Amino acid sequence: MGKSKDKKTGEELFDSFYSNLWQERWPDLKASLIGEKAEQVSVPNTNPPYWLDEASLISASLLPVTKGSNVLDMCAAPGGKSLILAQKTGKEGFLTANDRSPERRERLKKVLSSLSEEYRPDVRITGFNAESWGLYEKEVYDFILLDAPCSSERHVLLDPKHLGLWSPNRPKRLSISQYAMLSSALMALKKGGWILYSTCSINPGENEEVIKKLFSRHGEEVEESILYPAFSERREKGAIILPDTNKGKGPMYFCLIRKKES
Description:
Layout: H1 10-22, H2 26-34, E1 41-43, E2 50-52, H3 54-61, E3 70-73, H4 80-89, E4 94-98, H5 102-113, E5 122-126, E6 141-147, H6 153-157, H7 160-165, H8 169-188, E7 189-199, H9 208-218, E8 222-225, E9 233-234, E10 239-241, E11 252-259
Parallel strand pairs: 3-4, 3-6, 4-5, 6-7
Antiparallel strand pairs: 1-2, 7-11, 8-11, 9-10, 10-11
Helix pairs in contact: 3-4, 8-9
């Protein structure tokens, strides 16, 4: 039998899904995702210079890492945000930079080696499953960055193959994994410690809805630190930097969470 005439393509499904989420804002937001990115900024004290979107630099800088602390970057590759965390904890501190992909870990090593030695902490590069991390290391870290794998709509829109294969099941699967990672991070975090959850998605289901789920299940353990960084707009939980209103910066969602002392 031939293909059904009513069956939508991946591109049509994608457009319908995000149009429903963003309503009248979607045409401008979509155009900004396809259009030219903002000029990148360099991470200080790197040689060769490491360049990244300013929204990413802003996001990673929100985690209030202190000198000499024990820091985990759960999904670290390619490593730009790890460079920022490494400098904040400094030579007196310890950074675990994790990524499951061997190829991405090799890139991560190279990126971290670009940081000047005077700012480089003791670094451990690992390849563990972030979803189950907290089962093996409980209340170990002072600060955790979870820059979770996400729909990354900008990349999908620019890749015809991925756009053609897209379905609404993809963000659903991702949100399940993202919550598993976030709850695992909470287990691995010391009391009084901080988690920064971030994605480069524009889908609330992968952003504030993941945070809301954490609060619905662990509300007695956590509290949100309300953030108003440059270029951002508040969401029900957390904040987001969007390219349609910020000359191509982002997208970057972030939410800063503290684990209560008791």
